[in-house]
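Entry 12.
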Amino acid sequence: MRNDVAPTSVWVSVTRYCELYDLDRKTVYKYLGAGLLRSWQVGRVLRVRNVPPLPPTTERPALP
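Predicted 3D structure (tokens):
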């Protein structure tokens, strides 16, 4: 492994995700609730996958 390349974090805190993508915390939690972001939680620690959020769709979801 090269020493001059810093490894990228796959999972970041909600605060760091907000800083990276210039979002508000409430927006991140709305994205999590809508299923646009993947998260990982153990106890009180919540981590968000470090990828840009998926764009929201304008279509209404089909009812079961």
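Annotation: Residues 11-49 form one domain. The first strand starts at residue 11 and ends at 13.
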